[in-house]
Amino acid sequence: MVCIQESPAFRHGEYVNIPQFIIMGGLFFCSQFLMVFISNTMILDFISIGGLLTIILSLNMIGISIVSIVNILPALVIIFPISYLFSFIFL
């Protein structure tokens, strides 16, 4: 990250750290309130979606498949309500 921020093409790189710190700090402190609503099953589903995204990304890197990862990223957000609904259906 230091090399990118100090390059001439990225002149205002030192100012990126301030909003990044604010956003990441806000997410960190909000996560404590959200953990009340997230079960262990939801965390396991989130981890499994992350593993699936990693496999798809590696297949894209070696040229086996051509799938845009950006189109699959909403699965990281959608997995929480889907997991919540499935917990009522299958338990």
Strand content: under 5%
Whole-number mean pLDDT: 84
Radius of gyration: 18 Å
Count of individual helical segments: 5
Give the helices and strands as they follow along the chain: HHHHH
Per DSSP E runs of 2 or more residues, the count of β-strands stands at 0
Distance between the termini: 46 Å
| Shape verdict | flat
In percent, how helical is the residue content? over 70%
| Unreliable stretches | none
Instruction: Report the structural category.
Output: mainly alpha
Main sheet specs: none
How would you sum up this structure, described in words?
With 91 residues, this protein is mostly helical. Helices cover 71% and strands 0% of the residues. The chain is built from five helices and no strands. The protein is flat.
Give a nutshell description of this structure.
The protein has 91 residues and is mostly helical.
Key words describing this protein structure:
91 residues; 5 helices; mainly alpha
Give a topology summary.
Layout lengths: L1 H4 L11 H18 L5 H23 L6 H4 L2 H16 L1
Helix pairs in contact: 3-5
